[in-house]
Structure formats: C-alpha cells, structure tokens
Amino acid sequence: MVEALLRVRELVKHFPAAGDWFAQIFDRRVVRAVDGVSFEIERGTTLGLVGESGSGKTTTGRVIVRLVEPTRGEVVFDGIDLLKLKGKALKAMRKRIQMIFQDPASSLNPRKTVGQIVAEPLRVHGMVKGRDLERKLVRTLELAGLSGRFLNRYPHELSGGQRQRVGIARALAVRPEFIVCDEPVTALDVSIQAQILNLLMDLQEELSLTYLFIAHDLSVVKHVSDRVAVMYLGKIVEIGDVNTIFGSPKHPYTQALLAAVPRPDPKAPPRKVLRGEVPSPIDPPPGCRFHPRCENFLGDICKEEEPRLLRVEGGVMVACHLYGRGSSSQRAPEEKAQGKPNPPEAPPFL
Amino acid sequence: MSGLLRVEGLVTRFYTEEGVVKAVDGNSFHLEENEALGVVGESGSGKTVTALSIMRLIEAPGRIEAGRILFRGEDLLTKPEREMRRIRGRDLSMVFQDSLSSLNPTLTVGAQIARVLKHHTRLSSRARRRRAVELLAAVGIPEPEKRASHYPHQLSGGMRQRALIAMAISCNPKLLILDEPTTALDVTIEAQIFELIGKLKGEFGMGVFLITHDLSVVASFCRRVIIMYAGKIVEEAPVGDLYANPLHPYTLGLLRSIPPLDGEAERLESIPGEVPDLINLPPGCNFSPRCHLADERCWQREPELLEASPGHRVACWKAGKGGKGG
After folding, report:
1. I need a surface site. Which of A60, A215, A217, B197 has the fewest CB within 10 A?
2. pLDDT tens for each residue of A138-194
3. Distance from CA of B304 to the nearest CA of A (A)
C-alpha cells in the first residue's frame, strides 16, 4: 500500500456564531464549519474537495496550512502531527506545505514587485541570499510559465492569469511537497483557466507534488483529481476514486450535484434542480444533514440517525442510510438496474 | 420577423487617458420575443458594454458613437433620458453581476422592489408591498414575508440574486438582460435560477439577453448564441449548430478548454496568450495573435461577419466553406 502523505482524522472546527467577545458572552452558539472530517492523501496524488458554499471545504484547507486552528482532530503530515508543532518546527513545516489562493488580485501585495513577492518565502526561510537569489527567482517564475522580465513588474500591471502564475511561483519558491489549492481557477477566464490547470498538472508531475484541490466547479475537480471528497454542511458524504464517483455517484447529494451541472452540449438531458438551500451550519438538521433536501428520504432513520461513512462497491465510501448498516435491502435508484451492490463493510479507517 | 430587439452597427468607445478603448466595434444582432440569446466571451470582449449600451447606461468617458438600437421598432438612441427612465425597469430590465453592490444596503429588499413599482405603476403603497412579497415568492425565496423586511446583507448570495431578479421582473419586462447572473453562485442555486427565468420567459414571452462566459449554461438555456472577442462578434449561431459545428477557431478553443464532466479527462487544449488590449488592437483579425491557423491575410485584413449557413455567421478567413472572402 502506498503511504499517505497527509492524514486528517475527525477534524472539527467550530467558529463562534457571534461577532466580538462581548456578544459571545450572550450568544454561545457555534458555526459548525467542519464537523468530523477524515481523509488521506497519498504522495503525488490529488484529492479534490467539492461542495457548495458553506460546506466547510475552505476551512478544511486552511486548517491544514494552520491558517485556522481546529477545535479538535488530528492532521498528520509525513508522520508528524501538524497541530502539535510550534516555533521552529512549525516554521520548518511551513516550507513543506504551501497554499495557492482563489483571488490572485487580493492575495498579492500591490506594493511589492513580482520579484519581491516570490522572494518573500525564500527570505522568511533564509533559503537563498545574494546573487543566487535572482537566478532562483527566475527559475521559479519560469516553472510557473513566466519569464524573468516579470521580476520588476507590479501585480496591477499583470493580467488575472499572470497574477495567478505569480501566486503559484510564490508557493513553489520554497519547493514544497504539498500544496493546498483553494479555488485556484475560479476567478479566471475559461481559456486562461485551462492554461493554469495544465500548468498545475505539469508541475505535479515534474516536482512530484501532492495537492488538496478545493473547488466548487465539478468539471475542474474531475479533471485534476485522482480521488474526490464531496462535502455537505461540514461533513464528507462521499469519498473515493474520482472516475468511480463521477461515473456512478452513490450519495443522493452527489447525484443531485452532478445532475445540476450544465453540459456543454445542447442535446444533453435538461439539468435537474435540487430544491432549497444549504441550511445554516449553526443549527444543522439532525440525523443526516441532507435529509430535508433528499429525494431518497427513507423516513425516521434519516431524521434521527447520522449515517456513517461505509465502504460500498468500487471502494467508494458513502455516508447514507440507503446503503444501510449491514443490510443491503435498501438501494439507490441507479443500483436497481445494475443489480445488487456489494454488501457494505465497516471501514478500516479512511 | 419584426424582432423585439434589433441592434445595428453598434459602436461604443471609451475615451481614457491611455487612449481610445474600442469596447464594442460595429456589432449587429437581433433578439425575438420568448427567445434566450446567449452572449459569450471572456473579460474585455464587450459583452457588458453591449448590454449597458442597450440600457443607455454608458457614462463618460464612454460614448455610443454609431448604430441603432431598435427596441420594439423604436430607436432607443434617439429617446430623451426622461423617456428612457420610463422604459428602464418597465419594458427593459437588467440584472447586474454583483448582487451586493447593485442593491441599496440601507433599504429592505421589499422596499426596494416597492420603489420600482412606485416609479412605474399606480399601485397603492399597500398593494406595492403585497406585490413585492408575491414577487419574492415567485422567485422561490422561502418565507417571502419575512425576507421582504430584511436588508441585503442579511440574505445569502443566492437569495440576493433572486431578489434582484424579482425586482427586474416586477413590471413584466419585454426584455430581460442578465449579466453573469449566476457566476458567484453554486451550481444548485444556478440551476434553480435558470429554471425560474425559463418559466417567466415562457409565461410572458419575455426575451432574455444572457451574458455569460460559461458555454455549458448557454447550451442548457439558450436558443441562439453570439460569441464575442475583443469588441466584435466573431460567431453567431443557433445553439445546436454552434456546438456541433463551431466555425471560429476561438469558439473551438473555448469549447475545448472546458474540462469534460462525462468521459475521460485528457490534457486540456488551452488558447495560448491573453485577450488583447482594446486600446492597441492588432491589425487584421483581433484573434490572429492567438490563432494557430493565422497567416499573412489574417494579420493584415479584418475578416467580415459572413453567413456560413442559415443563421450561422462567422468572421474568420479560415472558417471552412462559409468564409468565401470579402
């Protein structure tokens, strides 16, 4: 078995619902942004994290780079417990884990040149000095598909695609092993989006990078990921091989998401509309959090009992009572035509 | 075919300190009742400026320099501003991309819709309020009574966008312009919103001018589509034709840069380079610097928008059989 580079276990992040400390005295409610999420990412692969706004995907990414401190849970990177690191050890770890942000316009300092922006992480980590620095900067920019002549430009002189390349170069400067990509192409035009996706995939191969790729665009996630995790209201509802999940989604939420995506083909069947909105994470529905919107609602069990992630056929894990707790009598609609699904087995651990 | 909207030779330019921005450069198109026309292009292609020109909302340093905008047979460009105010919001409505900045933060959503009704109808203030709640319900906002008394910041992005649509359709417009109405929204909300707009289109025979960069949305919602590049229409076709037989290399590039959701993922074919600067446009075809087919003629002479097959127009020297040359 291939070793997991990153292992996240029972990660929980609750934010206070009220704004300042004073309001918090009177309002003890919490926003359950991430509520018990576990997954692993193998070295050199990409895990796609999808879900609607409010699903907790961005918070999950931010906890991994320690931009947000979790309420509970464990994040183990290459055998090291990330959440216990402090001081020098934490700083050393930050060199190995980097992040690419959604909006390149607001994640680059407008007062600094491209050269200064990309040099910043090298400076912080005391990696390169003096004459070698410029050579290193040019090499890094070239990795991201920019030539050395961009070194003295300012972010406002660049197009959206070029800015995102600077954001990528900054992440690459310290030669990380793992990159959290948070909606890296969402703000870009379609033709530029394809350029950046190709770049990220080439870099992964060249530098054997491991990615956590967060996005709400399902076709983008399908394109870059090896495995995918679908989140809903702070929980993973389905996780597994990307082609298996996109080819035959098991969870009713995954099915609804995929059916809602328009295809670039006028002859495609019409989009199916999932009713309602994602409920408030302050007070998520009891039982299965998706039950108020679910087409396959089974009755009390869905309202009362929270489904656990169980392994179904194809090695995919699904948290849904349709796939039972050992009983295979209930099946998703698609399954009926294809015959019996394999009886689910308890997960060893994700 | 009288046409709900007929735009002829529209030229809109912005006179900036850096130079003249040729935002819309001589475009003609039409839109019928009960028809959804998709307008697709990247940032800087002139989609939004086209819409703002139709609404007569171009402000200095911008100017509509030439052309006619025939809305139900009458040229909007010759109308005094006073009359435009009566038309805007009543017959001609627009939903802007950013719902937070196009709603007034100091008024409740219900009050904002009521204001539009006050301007355009003779309803009593009570009737206006009732109608505002009805409209919020019609766009699928849960608990419309309660939501009507909420301020924009209290609503989610999806709800704000729906509130804007409620406002835009409050007087049953003949033409609804949507500028990237769902770009910031999740696919599930996007699907809900297009279902709603499709219903209104059918019920009131409303024409829809849908600006988007998403060819998949167009495929699922529109009957015809216009592809714009650097201020010009480069291709226009019925939706079925465009996807089955795209003629312009830019259209083809756009279609190929969408990662496929069904089927195997290979490497994406991206369009090299970036959209040109609208102040310093290249000579010849605007797309030629990024086009792998371009040759001498493309760099020197601009191709005309010519009909390749009925309803399918393309502006490209290399566009197969249709491009007979100007």
Report:
1. A217
2. 999 999 999 999 999 999 999 888 999 999 999 999 999 999 999 999 888 888 899
3. 24
